[in-house]
């Protein structure tokens, strides 16, 4: 029995509010239940030094959590003067995931930065970030296409992510915080709309798991990502 | 003529959405026009080292701006590894302003941290932060009173802040970004509901100003703060 | 009654020792009573990146306090690895104040940095810094004029600063440390020799103040700045 | 055809030189082909603050790479003043992997730190680190058992790790640097000697992969880890 | 021929102005020609953690250079966020030198920090710092003896330091900046008033030197230190 | 009687293992007894900014100690975010020492970085680093000569370093850790194969020393360096 009463393969309600802010080329407030992440996509007509003159663009991500997004206040990374290992690990994952669905050559010599800021946290902030980042990226690229800055679409397909875990012996989809802090294993899958896998990460927290467990988690993730793919399309009006 | 078409003594629409997040003891999304700041109040049952054992509490503030709150993306302070001078100046101002209306002895040995995070910026982020912080503080203290943790109210009165400036020779209230970047002088006033001044800061950016100019800015600020005081009371249901 | 026995509108003795060091283009040791600040003006034939190629110069300031300038030793900011919020706030204020009297276009594409290092502190270090910085800047610019590097004088007028405060209910001029640590309100005014105001900052520390209080502080500041203007002129031999 | 001429399921030669240094409680120089990592295990009779008084121990890891471990010299993290996101991600993974086979309560209130320093890099430094760390931990714990500081063995079983990847369309075991920089997908598996999985991470670098691909990589990892388990036992004389 | 016209064994004029600042327990402005260093001695009734409860005191030093102490402005270490290797090397040397003449047990559980801040630099800032630090320490200890906080004198003897070098083939005493930047070898000697050596450091900058050269430099240093010892005694009124 | 039973003028066994790693242009594992340092020489076809376009090269060094090179684990400098004063002092010394035997003009516009990483420490890590760095530099330069990148040899002669000290009243050569931590004076000499001195540093730790003591330490250093010179030549096959 899950604390929230959800079925093992049931996502929390997915909410996607596009164009949440006015300045960014793309922006979205995405919610997986009580987890809320604001994602903005910023287009800059320059690329990082290692790509200069190579005729391709770049997609990157930064991640942050507001100090009181969580149950008890955490310290502000800007005040501590450094980003934690967890923050860096997450923002590297988000960037890789979005690059997996972007044709960087078609993007041209420009960079799109996806800022994922967690307004409220209840488990699954990195997977909500990836799923929302696709929407923000889609909106920003649509603007580039509409303005004629881009003539062909560099976004190849959709990407979404969801967490799964083994909670009290049962594989379950989309862990919330009470489940996340008590799970035996915790996995994050980044899946593409063509069914391929961009990233699989499954970590034993208590008891280790076996091959069958890994596969059951992956299959739950497919169910969740299909829901997210549908919500993404609806949000961007496709 | 103001770019927005407002009268010289006209505030932008004030919006205050209390209880915007679920974990913080107090939270609010405050808007002065397109400027949107999320303020949370976090209560901790401890005080900073310099106050330990002195029988009083503390109210402090931190301020941040999401990288794409602005027209063009700014760098993330957590990634740069330090807070700018501007950020530190603003968070010190917010903390002082809220302490000006708090009886720290009545608060008891606990600290309330006001995190002011700018979601969207269009001028006046520090004044919106102060004005919103009072609401978040009020909500958090109401919770402490309701739970019996506090038996007398440590909040003495209301505090609000607004910017004014001399724009194309005319003193105007509540500068938005186009005015702010082009004003001859830029002032921030922090006023109390009893009419007293907690803080006055008036900086010449282009032409310097005189005593009469300073007074006219102050009088505009009174008009604006009265609007904010009313909106604050409505938001907290008083 | 002031701890020092001064009248409410009485400055501490102002001492200005020009050319205190040999290498800087301009240098001065300025004293407001026991507060002593060494200010040097360094001319560099380059401008910061944001001004390159714009046909104008820049005036900026840095501020520091020697660890034992104060009653008890403070930690060295270079050893802590960062400048405090207070330091940054002060150096931003000094820079703005001097730019208020400088025609940056007439200065040409060069930067003058005003380093204000507090040798001994007894209240009013930021106002002594601003007042001394004008002298150092004047001396450095005189050297540029004498050498023919500049043909017209970019310094438009004088700038000086002084603190005032409400001490035991009475507005007083030029707070020393015992007054500063016990004042109800603490203000800093940066005034120009033509009577205009470049910056006004008045902060309630205990009881808040009203419009009349603000004006009385401003009028005291005028008295003090007139003394400083005279001392500046004498020091630079005008 | 692999650049090294190895069969797809063939590990590079595994070398394990125990007791490589004299001061550490456990130490080992482990090699997977040209990848060489020095791992030391340091026992300290204290635990980190979050565990004080909880009657359990802690196992943690730090990771570093000598500047010229690689083909071209990289900058020294100590000189840059911060550890990269990659370094932090790796050391968190190593720590989690070793804790998966340690009974922290049986360890008692002491901490064992596993320092993994890459002397020479040719792909697979994180997996060699984990595999070597088990040997260093085993040697250090044996010393604690021999001295009577521990009376029961807190190490539950063996842990080892290996990388796999899809190289030119073929799943291969234990990527060396030429393969790693050119693979379509890159996975790291941390496996236990009872067959369970502690951690699976599979990242698409070029083409994304499918469920069958993930399973084939996992099966290769089992082959490699069995070789490592045997080499570990031989090195510690069991 | 030396640029300054001095004889090879001739010091620059030594100036020592004791009690240069009012707050520090001991303070001095020491000059070796145009090199001017402000040294303050701060007494604190606590010792660093590694000495707690060991019944002894500590003498330590910090060193800094004002940005425009030099011919061209250097960057401020507090603004850069770290002390250079040179700064750290010098402050370690100053601390060791003063500890060489202090009976730390007789000092009791207190720390004296010697802050050496270079106001103006013309070669020899580290040796002027050491020589001035002895004066500041002497003054501070005299205050502790006068107040009865100390009953026996922990200062065993005098310490002084001077630079020497091989300039255009000739060993010379007390290098100024033009000599220092052009010397073949540059040495610093820290000598005690009983004739012993606390520290000798001789570095070849151009041509290396031989044993005879080292001895000749040492003998010059003795001449210089004897002058400094006399000036120190006069300054402290002994 | 020395703890190790060595005669006062007896070095520990010197071991030099050239080409210890595969990627660096030169590499060596040098041992003075239980002190083991890995030195790599990395050639880069660029010079630091201050040398650009000056037609000469540069030789520099970095130094580090693995956290558990020592008897008890020290913290990792990369994790602390800064290099200690001791580290910086040592790496500056190593760089100066190697530049003393290199004709930087003959080297051409390239930089050779000597990374000295202490694998195991038992006293004398800086002197072993210098002595090993010469070998690594020699090997790297030999490769440049063999490839034709260099046509004349920029290495003028050999350089070696050794520590000496006054231990229980007796001058002894090549201090190991038990001697080092208990010596009255501790000296490091950097000598050239032509008999000249590149650097002499002698520090009193307990009792100060006299001119005779300094000379006796220097003479011991000559004995030790002659042994090292021979071992260096043998290692590089000359």
Automatic annotation (TrEMBL), chains A, B, C, D, E, F:
<dbReference type="GO" id="GO:0016075">
    <property type="term" value="P:rRNA catabolic process"/>
</dbReference>
<dbReference type="InterPro" id="IPR050080">
    <property type="entry name" value="RNase_PH"/>
</dbReference>
<feature type="binding site">
    <location>
        <begin position="124"/>
        <end position="126"/>
    </location>
    <ligand>
        <name>phosphate</name>
    </ligand>
</feature>
<keyword id="KW-0820">tRNA-binding</keyword>
<dbReference type="GO" id="GO:0031125">
    <property type="term" value="P:rRNA 3'-end processing"/>
</dbReference>
<dbReference type="GO" id="GO:0009022">
    <property type="term" value="F:tRNA nucleotidyltransferase activity"/>
</dbReference>
<comment type="similarity">
    <text>Belongs to the RNase PH family.</text>
</comment>
<dbReference type="Pfam" id="PF01138">
    <property type="entry name" value="RNase_PH"/>
</dbReference>
<dbReference type="InterPro" id="IPR027408">
    <property type="entry name" value="PNPase/RNase_PH_dom_sf"/>
</dbReference>
<keyword id="KW-0819">tRNA processing</keyword>
<dbReference type="GO" id="GO:0000049">
    <property type="term" value="F:tRNA binding"/>
</dbReference>
<keyword id="KW-0548">Nucleotidyltransferase</keyword>
<dbReference type="GO" id="GO:0008033">
    <property type="term" value="P:tRNA processing"/>
</dbReference>
<dbReference type="InterPro" id="IPR036345">
    <property type="entry name" value="ExoRNase_PH_dom2_sf"/>
</dbReference>
<dbReference type="InterPro" id="IPR020568">
    <property type="entry name" value="Ribosomal_Su5_D2-typ_SF"/>
</dbReference>
<keyword id="KW-0698">rRNA processing</keyword>
<feature type="domain" description="Exoribonuclease phosphorolytic">
    <location>
        <begin position="10"/>
        <end position="140"/>
    </location>
</feature>
<dbReference type="GO" id="GO:0000175">
    <property type="term" value="F:3'-5'-RNA exonuclease activity"/>
</dbReference>
<feature type="domain" description="Exoribonuclease phosphorolytic">
    <location>
        <begin position="158"/>
        <end position="222"/>
    </location>
</feature>
<dbReference type="InterPro" id="IPR001247">
    <property type="entry name" value="ExoRNase_PH_dom1"/>
</dbReference>
<keyword id="KW-0808">Transferase</keyword>
<dbReference type="InterPro" id="IPR015847">
    <property type="entry name" value="ExoRNase_PH_dom2"/>
</dbReference>
<keyword id="KW-0694">RNA-binding</keyword>
<dbReference type="InterPro" id="IPR002381">
    <property type="entry name" value="RNase_PH_bac-type"/>
</dbReference>
<dbReference type="Pfam" id="PF03725">
    <property type="entry name" value="RNase_PH_C"/>
</dbReference>
<feature type="binding site">
    <location>
        <position position="86"/>
    </location>
    <ligand>
        <name>phosphate</name>
    </ligand>
</feature>
<dbReference type="InterPro" id="IPR018336">
    <property type="entry name" value="RNase_PH_CS"/>
</dbReference>
<comment type="subunit">
    <text>Homohexameric ring arranged as a trimer of dimers.</text>
</comment>
<comment type="function">
    <text>Phosphorolytic 3'-5' exoribonuclease that plays an important role in tRNA 3'-end maturation. Removes nucleotide residues following the 3'-CCA terminus of tRNAs; can also add nucleotides to the ends of RNA molecules by using nucleoside diphosphates as substrates, but this may not be physiologically important. Probably plays a role in initiation of 16S rRNA degradation (leading to ribosome degradation) during starvation.</text>
</comment>
<protein>
    <recommendedName>
        <fullName>Ribonuclease PH</fullName>
        <ecNumber>2.7.7.56</ecNumber>
    </recommendedName>
</protein>
């Amino acid at each position: 029995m899950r604390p929230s009463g959800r079925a093992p393969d049931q996502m929390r309600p997915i909410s996607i509010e596009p164009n949440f802010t006015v300045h960014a080329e793309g922006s979205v407030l995405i919610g997986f239940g009580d987890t809320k992440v604001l994602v903005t996509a910023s287009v800059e007509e320059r690329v990082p030094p290692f790509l200069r003159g190579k005729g391709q663009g770049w997609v990157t991500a930064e991640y942050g959590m507001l100090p009181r997004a969580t149950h008890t206040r955490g310290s502000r990374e800007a005040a501590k003067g450094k980003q934690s290992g967890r923050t860096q690990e997450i923002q590297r994952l988000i960037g890789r995931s979005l690059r997996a669905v972007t044709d960087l050559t078609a993007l041209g010599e420009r960079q799109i930065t996806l800022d994922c800021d967690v307004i409220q946290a209840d488990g699954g902030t990195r997977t909500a970030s990836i799923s929302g980042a696709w929407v923000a990226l889609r909106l920003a690229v649509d603007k580039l296409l509409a303005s004629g800055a881009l003539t062909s679409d560099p976004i190849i397909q959709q990407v979404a992510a969801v967490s799964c875990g083994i909670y009290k012996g049962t594989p379950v989809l989309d862990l919330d915080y009470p489940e996340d802090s008590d799970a035996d294993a915790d996995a994050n899958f980044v899946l593409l709309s063509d069914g391929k896998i961009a990233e699989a990460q499954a970590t034993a927290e208590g008891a280790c798991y076996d091959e069958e467990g890994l596969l059951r988690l992956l299959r739950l993730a497919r169910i969740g990502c299909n829901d997210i793919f549908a919500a993404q399309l609806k949000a961007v009006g496709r």
